[in-house]
């Protein structure tokens, strides 16, 4: 299986679980020295939010290895691609990356590259710069900011709570569906239990758009356990939406299995 075939397998949610996990492991083995590495990272980032625990855990573990520079040649290839998008600009200067990120007239490729460099380099104040994206009218960039926050989450420590608070405020302040979707996606990636009250409220809101309730269900199912999470997903068992019910069933079943294993 080559890289392109592995990426197709990973992204096809209708494929059997064992096939998708095998494709993830194949991609992990192929990753070192790959060119066109951005496509592989995109697939891993998408898989890191998958509802299937074995899929998102394998994807997250691979992304962690990349972020720890275990795949040095692959990381180098990824940086070279981003350098092309910045057209020779200095990506080592965080202030310059912040300026590009906030420049609504900058091209999509430049702003995306700035987001990804901030995730890779994790300079001081990167969190604040990335969080600011969610208050702008740029939903595609907000999803990129969510992915960058995910890659630097290990550097956040206590500020992770602050990131969760700011994202919650941004969610309440906007009515733009795609921005709200990106915020819920980011909360799921960050995995802070402090976000569970908001996520449960979205899931319980029958007037909310289906895509938002689905994102909230995914984020709850992937996060650390809490009483709020368990109660919300148990309510989700009787939800009118098939996807929400499916996420709830799988999450509760997995939690029961892990509880039995621990017992």
Describe this structure in words.
The model has no long low-confidence stretch (mean pLDDT 83). With 263 residues, the protein is mainly alpha-helical. It is globular and about 55 Å long. It has helices spanning 3-11, 17-30, 37-47, 53-67, 72-86, 94-102, 108-121, 126-133, 139-156, 159-173, 177-190, 196-204, 210-222, 227-236, 242-262. Helix 9 runs parallel beside helix 11 (177-190) and helix 10 runs antiparallel to helix 11. The chain is built from 15 helices and no strands. It starts with a helix and ends with a helix. The protein folds into three domains: 3-73, Alpha Horseshoe (Leucine-rich Repeat Variant); 89-183, Leucine-rich Repeat Variant (Alpha Horseshoe), CATH 1.25.10; 191-263, Leucine-rich Repeat Variant (Alpha Horseshoe), CATH 1.25.10.10.
Distance between the termini: 40 Å
Run of helices and strands: HHHHHHHHHHHHHHH
- At CATH's second level, what is the architecture of the largest domain? Alpha Horseshoe
What does the oligomeric state look like here? single chain
Share in β-strands:
under 5%
Average pLDDT works out at 83
Overall strand count: 0
Q: Indicate the low-confidence ranges by residue numbers.
A: none
Total of DSSP H or I helical runs spanning 4+ residues: 15
Rg, Cα atoms, Å: 18 Å
CATH class of the largest domain: Mainly Alpha
Query: Could you give a short account of the major beta sheet?
Result: none
Secondary structure blueprint with pairings:
Layout: H1 3-11, H2 17-30, H3 37-47, H4 53-67, H5 72-86, H6 94-102, H7 108-121, H8 126-133, H9 139-156, H10 159-173, H11 177-190, H12 196-204, H13 210-222, H14 227-236, H15 242-262
């Amino acid at each position: 299986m080559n890289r392109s075939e592995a990426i197709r397998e990973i992204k096809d949610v209708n494929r059997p679980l064992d096939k998708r996990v095998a494709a993830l492991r194949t991609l992990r083995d192929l990753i070192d020295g790959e060119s066109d590495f951005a496509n592989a990272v995109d697939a891993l980032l998408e898989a890191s939010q998958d509802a299937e625990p074995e899929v998102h855990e394998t994807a997250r573990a691979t992304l962690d290895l990349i972020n720890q520079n275990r795949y040095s040649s692959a990381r180098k290839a990824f940086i070279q691609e981003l350098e092309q998008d910045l057209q020779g600009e200095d990506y080592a200067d965080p202030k310059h990356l912040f300026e590009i990120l906030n420049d609504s007239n900058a091209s999509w490729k430049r702003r995306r590259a700035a987001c990804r460099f901030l995730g890779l380099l994790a300079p001081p104040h990167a969190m604040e710069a990335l969080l600011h994206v969610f208050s702008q009218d740029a939903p595609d960039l907000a999803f990129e900011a969510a992915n960058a926050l995910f890659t630097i989450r290990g550097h956040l420590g206590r500020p992770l709570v602050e990131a969760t608070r700011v994202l919650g405020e941004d969610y309440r302040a906007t009515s733009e569906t795609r921005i709200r979707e990106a915020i819920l996606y980011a909360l799921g990636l960050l995995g802070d239990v402090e976000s569970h009250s908001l996520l449960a409220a979205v899931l319980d809101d029958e007037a909310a758009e289906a895509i938002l309730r689905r994102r909230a269900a995914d984020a709850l199912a992937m996060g650390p356990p809490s009483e709020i999470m368990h109660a919300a997903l148990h309510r989700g068992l009787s939800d009118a939406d098939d996807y929400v019910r499916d996420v709830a069933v799988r999450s509760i079943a997995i939690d029961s299995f892990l509880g039995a294993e621990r017992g």
